[in-house]
Amino acid sequence: MTRLKLWKSNGVPTLRVLTSAALLLASVATLRADDFWKRKPASQWTLAQALKLLRHSPWAHEEILPVTDLREEAEYSVPIGNKNCDPDALDVNGNCIQKRLELPVDSSRQQNPAPFIVPTRVMLIRWESAVPIAQAFARLAELDAKVAAEYQGRPPRLPEDGYVITVKMAQSSQSNKDLLAAPAEEKSKWEATLRTKRGVVPSKETQYSGNGAAAAVHYFFPRTLDGSPLFGASSERVEFTLKVDQHLTIKSKFTIDPDFLR
Fold this sequence. Notes:
Order of helices and strands: EEHHHEEHHEHEEEEEEEE
Number of strands: 13
Helix content: 10-25%
């Protein structure tokens, strides 16, 4: 029951509602609603819920990457460093994605071009070796959502002796900024590693799938290290790192829960 109390401030009555308990219950309800895969069997998932698991869930993260282009003439002065960066515009590596733009500078006095910030790219990083992820793809098949499933970049296979992480472009305003559109020989130089409690583990195999917007890269990691399982019986925080080149490194963290590990 909501309790009402009446206070007086400068002689004026003020009504205050004690809603802490109600807010707490609402927060718990919202959290439970987000964890639908724990409450509902996969056969009852909606299309939106299946897609949410594949895009925004404990096993699927979207990482924002900066896109900078050096133009011959810059219309604005872009200060260097994170001092002039919007607080919510830092990428996973702590680099500024969108700096505050100053007023146009006098081109007659400009000596060096400033980097022109163009729309960002968004990469989807997904831990495929999880029961809910496999169930989500199976549910898409049940719903006859073939096109949606293909776009999500499902790996061609899930080996019993390995874990799989998928990387694909989730959003890009310019086709020439699509990392996965790079030639195969260039992508083969990318270095994928997985940081665990037992150390940094490099990927043992790379596989490509799909074309265009459905293109994806799949990295395979061993299930055992030196003869012992890579993960134990308790939850563990791991970090996936993909070094594209000396300027760009993509990172994404996952909590590995043995109850959902596939």
